[in-house]
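Let's practice the habit of predicting before peeking. Look at the sequence and jot down your guess about where helices and strands might fall. Then scroll down.
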Amino acid sequence: MCSGIFFIDGIKRDKWIWSGDAYQNILTNQYLMADPDINRRTLLALRGNDPMTTHINTIIDYSLFWILGVGEHYQAYGDQEFLEQIYPKMCSLMEFCAGQVDEHGFFTGRDGDWVYIDWADMDKTGALCAEQMLFAKCWDVMAAVSRAIGADGRKYEEKYRELLGKINEFYWDEEKGAYIDSFVSGRRCVTRHANIFAIIYDLAEESKKERIVKTVLLNDNVPQITTPYFKFYEMDALCKMGHLTEVLQKVKEYWGGMLERGAVTFWEEYDPNVSEEEQYDMYGDKFGKSLCHAWSASPIYLLAKYFVGLRITDPVTGTYEVKPHLEDFESLKCTLPVRDKQVRIVWNKKDGLTVTEEEYREED
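Done guessing? Here is the structure:
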């Protein structure tokens, strides 16, 4: 239902294509359907035509997630033709975003722009750190995409390095061992979101990442994430830092908790502390919650990328590797797509790992 012509999350309400949702769908698509066409259609529809006058979905972080989505699409499929087609619109979107920076070069919203990130209580006074993390990663992606099509990406590399330095200067709190939401208010609040981005997008050095895991991700005093949308990013960060046992347990508790509540597809939001009588409420509507959100199926991505360990190492040739971390499983069998191949992975503790591949067939 969410994967027809476009990736649509919100099928029972607005029927919109949402850029932040689509980004996570692009990630999961790689390990489930491996369908580049729906990526292309979704990205083209979201971007629209120049000139840019408003942010994608009116949300500033969703403009940034669009750039990141193009980068993930190329990494998965090596789609050079699409990259060359979409590159001018990537450039103009980054120019549009670069026109909304403060005196420090930080990305900010205008009147009418929605600074979202997640349904969470964050100090959004002035420029929000989580937005700067995404903005920095976009400059990095622009540099990589430019190199891929033979364009000069040096200006994007310079922007990336400059912004990264400013983020560490203004938002890193050495005493807290974490990035704060805002330096403008003086409150120096710490939430999980910016710190998670710092890990998954490699925006912090390793020593800072290790501190973030202890001071933020494994710290129950930092407010918990209650949406599957951002819970995915938290699980991604923990996986990158090698905390796979904890992630598997959290997947069983969080997504498994929805199953125990009777879910047959994964929901837009889940809070185990909410009573069963109120579990379908959202936006002030008694049954306002979407019970079929594609990005809520993100454990597919986590299990395939980190536990099975399947990753494309060269987007041009489609070369891949399998480096499993399956010590927490007695056995596992799965078939994952890689371009025009189907990769069959079988693991058990007695016999170890077996990897076979065959050409993709339409009936598969």
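How did you do? The mean pLDDT is 94.
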